[in-house]
Amino acid sequence: MSQPFSHSRIASVRPLAAVAGGRVTIRGSRLWGGGETLPEVLIGDVAARVVYTDRATVACLVPDGLPGGATPIRLATAPGETAFLNVGRPMATGVHQVDSPVFGSDGTLYLTFSGTRGDQSPVSVFRVNRDGVREPFAAGIRNPTSMAFDLSGRLHVSSRFDGTVFAIDSEGRTEQVATDLGVASGLAFDADGTLYVGDRSGTILRVTPTSQVSSFATLPPSVAAFHLAMAPTGDLYVTAPTLSTRDAVYRVDRSGSVTPVVRRFGRPQGLAFDARGALYVVEALAGASGLFRVREDGETEHVVAAPSLVGVAFDPGAGAVVVSNDTAYRFDDLP
Description:
The strands form six sheets. The chain has a twelve-stranded mixed β-sheet, with no helix packed on it. With 335 residues, the protein is mainly β. It has two domains: 9-87, Immunoglobulins (Immunoglobulin-like, Sandwich); 91-331, YVTN repeat-like/Quinoprotein amine dehydrogenase (Methylamine Dehydrogenase, Chain H, 7 Propeller). Helices cover 0% and strands 49% of the residues.
């Protein structure tokens, strides 16, 4: 049994949000007195596994089975001290994401079942309403990869298998709108209705509303996928993980000029802008994984701790969803 210490205090928890398996760090004073017995940590009513401790620091993994929302953290060595962690609520499992999900204007969430290369799953795209009810939405797209809505609210989905982009109407019917796009991953529309598609071999392609395709920008090839997000300014932001120990988030202006914005990520994945125009990027590098906010000065803030994520999307109403390969987690708000 961990023994309490007089004058023990919890000063902070970082990050302030997490999903099951994410590593959070509690800092304070006199949190551990040494010895072989580690401090006992409860998140909600569930014991958390402690993975590091010193006199002023305790790091632990968020346990499974928590209901989500604001959840108390307590240490046996700091009686009377309570901090709170925003825990993501699992809202959909049994999917297969390789990029960020997307929200419709009505708050419906769209998720893919991408599968291994060449597979064609019975359902290509699922939709999840605000009550958390999931239903099949579209079929027939082999390896659905990335999604984006056009100006009319019609969903578009890329296939990395055959380099095709499909449009899907409100009834789930698919229509091919562009082909020969390489290993198509990453989609984004600009304010003029032009579609941008990432070909992971090293090109951002531009597709006009009349389906004319041209090269827009060149980036280093990716070993995984391109991920795209359109900023409120009209600039395109791109991640493209390589074998480098440090990869950049790129900004591509309207002329196709490419500028690295930040090079602090080991394996950047999906990215998105919130309603205030702040950029969020998923980091998938083991030991530093989670969701990060990129500040205007290029510094990053760890916002959500998670063992493995691939994407993020912001609800037009409120809240956000982060996704691993197989699970979507909802936050009603993010710090």
